[in-house]
Amino acid sequence: MHVYDKDIQMSRKKRVGMGYLHARQQNKAKTKSIIFRMMRQALLSTISGWKPSVSSVKEARILLVGPVGAGKSSFFNSINSAFKGYVSSQANTGTAGTSLTTQFRPYYIKPSSSVTHVPFILCDTMGLEDGVNTGLDVDFATILKGHIQDKYQFNPLMPIQPDSPHFHKSPGLKDKIHCVVFVIDISRVKLLSDKMIEKFVVFRKKANQLSIPQLVLLTKVDEACPLVAEDLKNVYQSHYINKMMQEVSFQLGVSLSVVVPVKNYYQELEIDPQTDILLLNAVVQMLRAAEGYFDDFYNPEERSE
Ligand SMILES: Nc1nc2c(ncn2[C@@H]2O[C@H](COP(=O)(O)OP(=O)(O)OP(=O)(O)O)[C@@H](O)[C@H]2O)c(=O)[nH]1
Ligand SMILES: [Mg+2]
């Protein structure tokens, strides 16, 4: 055989080998993608099948609070996107020095063809600032008790007045907050000022007094760790993410089991099943926490406080 033919034969062998490997990798990626889609669908079904154990309440009201720019509004947009099946941006997001969100905004998520019932409302709020009272600071307890209605404009100079058109005089159990979520940018956990931590401690005390369960949502995990930016499935293996989860649990005095990492949609044009899985898992944790709140009302008649 001519040397030249041999070369061709070798390269053919190589090519076949490489082709085989390539096909195997493609199959693996396909299987992975199918599994992620199934997991995403299972989470959507779990959420839409969830019902509060108190019949007078149809949806869990989840309150998002946290520093300016932490990703509260983006979290609502991301969850809305996960339910819609495409990236949507109903709430305004971005950076503006002070809080971009200045109103109290309870957001409903519309059912779609794949999800017939969405049993929660995400309540977006104004961002907290170091030392400065942004308005939410004075209205926090009033929100928890269900007195504040959609589109209330926070006022740092004074709390909501009972004669305000946004003041609900006699809220029922369905109007109260059933779970508080502290939203924090994971890269800023180490940079939280004493004043901000003090605010969280005060908020936690108020929520505890009303027996409202709390969760900590750590956002922007993609920015915090290159391994996670490369592949979101590394989120629970990342040493840095783990360290920050422990740090925030210590700083705020919450158990590690209520600290949930997520990545929001912030620049993507299409949804991604892996991002959805983290986001929807956060919602499942929130509903489980809210369930703890409703357990207090199980069997006996609804209590008004
Ligand atoms: N890389 C990355 N950026 C994010 C993520 N979530 C939010 N962002 C960005 O962070 C910035 C602030 O996000 P917002 O959702 O507006 O934050 P917010 O907490 O509502 O801010 P205020 O309403 O001003 O208090 C935006 O520019 C977002 O694009 C995330 O998970 N990863
Ligand atoms: Mg906002």
TrEMBL record:
It comes from the Eukaryota. Residues 61-143 form the G domain. GO terms for biological process: immune response. One of its GO terms (molecular function) is GTP binding. Gene3D superfamilies: P-loop containing nucleotide triphosphate hydrolases (3.40.50.300). It holds the Pfam family MMR_HSR1. InterPro entries: GTP-bd (IPR006073), P-loop_NTPase (IPR027417). PANTHER family: INTERFERON-INDUCED PROTEIN 44, INTERFERON-INDUCED PROTEIN 44-LIKE ISOFORM X1-RELATED. This is Interferon-induced protein 44-like. The lineage of its organism: Eukaryota, Metazoa, Chordata, Craniata, Vertebrata.
